[in-house]
Design goal:
By secondary structure, the chain is an alpha+beta fold. The chain has 14 helices and 18 strands. The strands form 4 sheets. Strands 1, 2, 6, 7, 8, 9 and 16 form a 7-stranded mixed beta sheet that branches. A hairpin with a 5-residue loop joins strand 8 and strand 9. The longest helix is centred in the C-terminal third of the chain and has 25 residues. The radius of gyration is 23 Å and the shape is globular. The chain binds flavin-adenine dinucleotide. The site of flavin-adenine dinucleotide has 41 residues, from helix 1, strand 7 and helix 10.
């Protein structure tokens, strides 16, 4: 095994909203720096930022305020968010949206008076989700991509990071990558590295994120010994398309704006069931609606494919077709009439609130390593508001881009990698070539079912124990399974194997964190501990790998801006 070497000043892992914003800001802060963006897919074509449908939360219109957006974020996160991170998110989103329009070149939909149109998203007290129709991410990522292409950014496309490699002193030296096209190992030495690989809970039977996402970033951070928080917090989006078992379209999301605009959810008996669960009906938060659909499924009141229906036709098919063109087209492609008929939906794993612990400047515990976007944690607590995801990645990606050049100025120089760590990680990545071929697809299917059944929308101790045992056995089998084709060039089975390993490693942490939290908050619901617990003494879970074992601890949430029971809103009626 040989390893090529590349040297850069800033290495950005991932080319979603976080990675691309970081590249632009870093070059703006210091145009003399050599910036490299490495991505598992093609620049502008991969990751979830491109898939953003609904839009971007920002308190920009009259009647709204940063405080209101903040309170929605904290209350939606069930008082678990890191309040400094949440405040940075909501306050910086304002300048980031202006930057997107005025510097990056995005056009968002506008009201007749020229102000930005904000659509209704569930769980928010103001219609603040700015958007480009219902395919907002394509606008954002295309414009970002054009800006990055116009600058001297080195692009390592179809390059997969497999490990973060420390120097002997523990600071980060760089990342070990595989050039997917040639199969060659490549070590990229950098003065600063941004982890922005975008989380993505694709270990569930039904899931929404792009196929290139397999929790690699969090698996690499775990391997480096970094602390991860809120790992039990997997957000299920209530309305994943249910198009039957034989299509990968099953699980893809039908956006929140459908419920925001007045869509109804019906069970298999055509009963509008949300009234049985929450007075906010379909506009309740994602966790509540997902659990309601799941309860209907468990009670057997399902549609032919085992889910629920979404119905929009009462709003007027022409209006629905105009306002939700992307969704209507997507459903039509799969043979369903969203504007005028019924479409089957199921809760689908959508977003991962857990991730690497960082501070407001995106710095992590490891010197030289920064984190932004869905790989980072703390901004959302127990629940991410729809529209806060892309705001999070662009806000903190930009901050990372601002901060890394300064960090480099104060800590100059490349650090040589610890040769033992580099050899160890290369050997680990090559592991499947030393084994007889195995049935990776069967293992993947087992993992999807395990996580959906035992560590999914509703959890309890017995289920989590079952899940942990199954994850152990899947991982053990995986380590005995090799890949048939020894050619490393574009060997997608090798990458499936590596995906599955990352997914197993992070699935275990999700299960352990779910076991640790003996209460129910937001996305995490324990049927054996259904109460939320005392908000004033809220804690968050912390997972860390030590000597090959996962250690779980809790840490107190600091209420630095607002305490449970209080509000930052002056008008208590408006706070409702
Ligand atoms: C269908 C869908 C709809 C959504 N709609 C909304 C919405 O309306 N509003 C909202 O706020 N949020 C939405 N989200 C969430 C939002 O997309 C994400 O929170 C956000 O875009 C994440 O940005 P990111 O930069 O962290 O990651 P991503 O945009 O996912 O980018 C991750 C990047 O990392 C790369 N990568 C992954 N692994 C590796 C590796 N090992 N080595 C190198 N590179 C790697 C990927 O190829 C990709 O380039 C939606 C998500 C989905 C899936």
């Amino acid at each position: 095994m040989t390893v090529d070497n590349i040297k850069t000043d800033i290495l950005i892992l991932g080319s979603g909203g976080a990675g691309l914003f970081a590249a632009l800001h870093a070059l703006k802060a210091n145009p003399d720096l050599n910036v490299t963006v490495a991505s598992k897919g093609l620049l502008g074509k991969c990751g979830c930022t491109r898939m953003v449908q609904g839009g971007y939360n920002v308190a920009i219109n009259p009647g709204d305020s940063i405080e209101r957006h903040f309170m929605d974020t904290i209350e939606g996160g069930k008082w678990l968010p890191h309040q400094e991170l949440a405040w940075t998110l909501v306050s910086t989103a304002v300048e980031r949206v202006r930057e997107l329009e005025n510097e990056i070149g995005c056009f968002f939909d506008r009201n007749p008076d020229g102000t930005l149109h904000g659509k209704a998203f569930a769980g928010q007290s103001f219609d603040r989700t700015v958007h480009k129709g219902d395919l907002t991410g394509i606008e954002i990522i295309n414009r970002l991509m054009e800006q990055v292409w116009a600058r001297p950014v080195r692009r390592l496309e179809e390059h997969r990071a497999v490990a973060l490699i420390p120097a002997k002193d523990g600071a980060l030296a760089g990342a070990l990558m595989i050039d997917i096209r040639s199969g060659q190992f490549r070590f990229v030495t950098a003065q600063a590295v941004l982890l922005a690989t975008g989380g993505g809970p694709t270990m569930y039977r039904y899931h929404t994120p792009s196929g290139d996402k397999s929790m690699d970033g969090l698996a690499m951070a775990l391997g480096l010994g970094l602390p991860l928080r809120d790992m039990e917090m997997v957000q299920f989006h209530p309305t994943g398309l249910l198009a039957g078992p034989d299509t990968r379209m099953t699980g893809t999301v039908l956006e929140e704006g459908l419920r925001g605009a007045g869509g109804h959810l019906l069970n298999g008996a055509m009963h509008r069931f949300m009234a049985d669960y929450d007075p906010k009906l379909e506009r309740a938060t994602r966790d509540v609606v997902s659990r309601a659909i799941y309860a209907e499924m468990k009670a057997g009141r399902t549609t032919p494919n085992g889910g629920a229906y979404i119905k929009m036709s009462h709003l007027g098919p022409a209006k629905v077709a105009k306002e939700f063109k992307g969704m209507v087209d997507r459903c039509r492609d799969c043979g369903f009439d969203l504007a005028g008929g019924l479409v089957e939906v199921v809760p689908t794993a959508h977003y991962f609130m857990g991730g690497v612990i960082c501070d407001r400047d995106t710095e992590t515990e490891c010197q030289g390593l920064f984190v932004a976007g869905e790989d980072a944690s703390g901004m959302h607590g127990a629940n991410r508001l729809g529209g806060n995801g892309v705001a999070n990645s662009t806000v903190f990606g930009g901050i990372a881009g601002d901060v890394m050049p300064h960090w480099i100025a104060n800590n100059p120089g490349h650090r040589p990698p610890d040769p033992e760590a580099l050899d160890f990680e290369a050997a680990r990545a090559e592991h499947p070539f030393s084994r007889q071929p195995g049935d990776l697809n069967a293992l993947r299917e087992k993992l999807l079912d395990t996580m959906w059944d035992d560590v999914g929308v509703v959890r309890d101790r017995a289920g989590i124990e079952r899940g942990l045992a199954a994850i152990d056995s899947i991982e053990t089998e995986l380590l005995t399974a090799g890949v048939a084709d020894r050619d490393r060039r574009f060997n997608l089975t090798w990458h499936d194997w590596l995906n599955l390993r990352s997914l197993c490693e992070i699935s275990r942490v999700i299960a352990l964190a779910a076991m640790r939290r003996e209460n129910s908050r937001g996305a995490h619901y324990r049927s054996d501990f259904p109460e939320p617990g005392d908000l004033a003494t809220s804690t968050f879970t912390v997972a860390r790998q030590k000597a090959g074992r996962i250690e779980m601890t809790d840490a107190p949430v600091l209420f630095t801006h607002v305490k449970p029971g209080e509000t930052l809103l002056r008008d208590p009626i408006a706070a409702e």
